[in-house]
Design goal:
This protein is an alpha/beta fold. The chain is built from 17 helices and 14 strands. It folds into two domains: 104 residues, MoCo carrier protein-like (MCP/YpsA-like, 2-Layer Sandwich), CATH 3.30.1850.10; 311 residues, Rossmann fold. 46% of the residues lie in helices and 14% in strands. Strands 9-8-7-6-10-11-12 form a seven-stranded parallel beta sheet, sandwiched between helices. The N terminus is likely disordered.
Length: 461
């Protein structure tokens, strides 16, 4: 009796490299084929499956891995290089038996970054988590190896943040903003997934085509813990897999010449709080980094709730670092173009790179990995009496834990075993947090539209 797993929409294939990939040594191949917990194969397999599953209507990593539990990817060595032998892969990644070119590039970007990080960053001892400069250098080397720092021109990169679970009106608005950015020859960097991460790239791609710009950059920066829930969209032409969320967030800020934030959920709130934790650092008081929060008129309540939360927890100084522009895509793009002159002048006079913001000071607590567990979430110090940049760091960790409980496989499994994470703090902060999170749930910003949300958190007094 044949007991093999049959998946109707699965494909077997052998694919050769696209994009940047160096020849692999025997030792590197051995690590990739090592299926133990210490080997690279489990990490490479999960990231590869996520990339091949782009366009899925599910943001549940556990569900995706269960559906394609028979998926395998093996390295086949030839004298002239390598190929990947793939079995039981999502059929949507193929057209008439051939893997889509962009997905193939993403697949080999995963291979490149998994190997480089393991061998040249972690394995070489280059990354010392106790040393902030070592962490920043590691971020730089990963980005340089991925060739995203090769661009030589005036500052033009806009990092766009926002939710993967947004409504159609908000999605169309992100496209309009991206279009206005692209018309002005600005490039786009996002978390590379769907929703507000895809819309700006799609709009910019159309605008670049109209302006006959063939060198447009659509840079996606992700990390292994989130890639299954937010796989790279098809427009991304430069993909980078950072080792963890903290290094991913630092990469965004080191790359950015300006930041645009669209409506989103806890993941977007996490990014904003990380950003404010950096901008409130006294060493960054004079550093120009334009930040615009924008959305369509119907999203005004989201921005009002977020502004009230920021003002109530971090104070007026935090709110002053943000510019709100509602329902006006051309104004957003014009603001960025004008602000980039100040960014360029600041870096030029201080001999700082246009491609990597070395002058930015990232506080050490924001660089340290946070592993959301029931104990670590309960231990967060959410009190208004703390310095604003320190409170911002712990609020960022709180939202990071909720993201993990919502969509990351390890977090989802921990919630299933032990129940929701518990957060505690003073009454003022907890009240503001409760109202913001309740609004996110009510607006269906925690999951993809149509899916049921089960809270991964509860608030204690």
């Amino acid at each position: 009796m044949d007991t093999s797993v049959v998946i109707p929409d699965a494909v077997d294939a052998r694919v050769g490299p696209r994009g940047s990939l160096e020849n692999l040594s025997q030792a590197e191949i051995a690590k990739l084929l090592d299926t133990s917990a210490q080997g690279l194969y489990p990490l490479f397999r999960s990231c590869a499956l996520a990339v091949l599953n782009a366009g899925s209507d599910s943001d549940n990593a556990h569900e995706i891995f269960e559906r394609y539990s028979a998926f395998t990817v093996q390295i086949v060595r030839h004298a002239w290089g390598i190929k990947l032998q793939i079995a039981h892969a999502p059929a949507a990644a193929f057209v008439d038996g051939e893997m889509i070119r962009g997905i193939k590039e993403h697949l080999f970007a995963v291979l490149r970054d998994v190997i480089y990080t393991a061998n040249e960053i972690v394995g070489s001892g280059r990354l010392d988590r106790r040393d902030p400069a070592s962490i920043t250098n590691a971020v730089f080397h990963i980005l340089r190896n991925a060739r995203v720092l090769d661009f030589k021109a005036r500052p033009n990169l806009v990092v766009c943040w926002g939710g993967h679970s947004i409504g159609e009106g908000e999605y169309q608005y992100t496209k309009k903003v991206g279009y206005e950015l692209g018309l002005r020859a600005l490039d786009v960097c996002t978390g590379c997934g769907p929703g507000a991460m895809k819309g700006p790239m799609k709009g910019a791609a159309i605008a670049h085509a109209k302006q006959r710009i063939v060198t447009g950059r659509y840079l996606g920066v992700t990390e292994p813990g989130i890639i299954a829930a937010e796989p790279p969209n098809a427009i991304v032409n430069q993909l980078v897999i950072m080792p963890d969320i903290e290094m991913r967030l630092e990469a965004f800020l080191r790359l950015a010449h300006g930041i645009v934030v669209f409506p989103g959920g806890v993941g977007t709130a996490e990014e904003i709080l990380y950003l404010l934790g950096v901008l409130l650092e006294p060493a960054n008081a004079d550093l120009p980094l334009p930040v615009v929060l924008t959305g369509p008129r119907e999203s005004a309540a989201w921005f009002e709730q977020l502004a009230a939360f920021i003002e109530g927890t971090l104070g007026d100084a935090a709110l002053a670092r943000l510019t709100f522009i509602m329902d006006d895509p051309p104004a957003v793009a014009r603001h960025m173009v004008k602000s980039f002159e100040a960014v360029r002048e600041f870096r030029r006079t201080r001999n700082d790179s246009y491609n990597f913001n070395w002058l930015l000071s990232v506080p050490a607590p924001l660089q340290q990995p946070f592993e959301p567990t029931h104990a670590s979430m309960r231990a967060l110090d959410l009190r208004r009496a703390r310095p604003a940049h320190e409170l911002a760091a712990d609020l960022r960790r709180a939202f990071s834990g909720i993201v993990a409980g919502n969509v990351k496989q390890q977090g989802v499994e921990a919630i299933a075993r032990h129940g929701p994470y518990e957060l505690a703090g003073d009454a003022a902060v907890m009240g503001l947090l409760d109202r913001l999170l309740a609004a996110f749930v009510q607006q269906e910003r925690m999951k993809l539209p149509g899916s049921r949300y089960r809270p991964s958190y509860r608030l204690a007094g």
